[in-house]
Amino acid sequence: MSEAKKCSPQCEVFRCAKKALGYRGNTAWCKWTEEECDVSNCSYATCIKRRLLPGGICGETLKRKTADVDPEEAVGPPVKLKGKALRRVGEKEIF
User: How does DSSP assign 6-74, residue by residue?
Assistant: First the structure.
């Protein structure tokens, strides 16, 4: 899981949305375009687990990056209320 890997038609969770994937020998063949299946350029390539990223990269092979954010910075500016919302809450600004 250290590097990103390209998705391939041999993957068990790979699907063709046009259902045009066939095999000729050991190569995956697209019956729609009559050429070899290229996951990175095909707009009908999908993943059952919804892990297919742009460029044909498998999301299962990537490690997530998380960022530490201060709670005060994440809140942002206060929201000003008017009308019915102001009457229900009773405050002019919500943080």
Answer: B--TTSTTEEETTS-EEEETTEEEETTTTEE--TTT-TTEEETTS-EETTTEEGGGPPP------HHHH
pLDDT mean over 40-57: 88
Among candidates 3, 21, 1, 2, which has minimal Cα distance to 11?
Answer: 21
Q: How many domains does the chain have?
A: 1
Report the predicted TM-score, pTM, of the whole model to 2 decimal places: 0.57
Q: Does 23 reside within a domain?
A: yes
Radius of gyration of the chain (CA): 24
Examine the pLDDT at 76 and tell me if it is beyond 80: no
